[in-house]
Amino acid sequence: MGEYVAYPNGNPFDPDDPPFKKPDWNFINPTITTWDTNKVISGQGIDRHSPKAFSKPYKQCMFGASQKYRYRTPSMPPGEYKTLMDGINIVRSVGQKDGKWIYTIEKSGRSSTLELPP
What we know:
Layout: E1 2-6, E2 31-34, H1 37-41, E3 61-71, E4 82-97, E5 100-107, E6 110-115
Antiparallel strand pairs: 1-2, 1-3, 3-4, 4-5, 5-6
């Protein structure tokens, strides 16, 4: 079981710096992660979206990715996967709100924000 996340514009995908500090925000494109199936079954699967470092001067910036969850069984040919969920959009952005710089990540109708240091 794992995920496949595709970013735009080549490999690696490098969002604008600033505000997304390099090399912290470099992504292998696509990013392919495989999880321990026993952990997933027991509810211990990991799907991290933690923010990384930011650089100044901040500027309004946004980038997206497309995520899918997939699995494979030992009887499947090498490299073959079955998709569980597809078309999951992930949007990361930096912008201003009430005079403060904010990082936002949005996925599946939910969002989380982080106020950036002045």
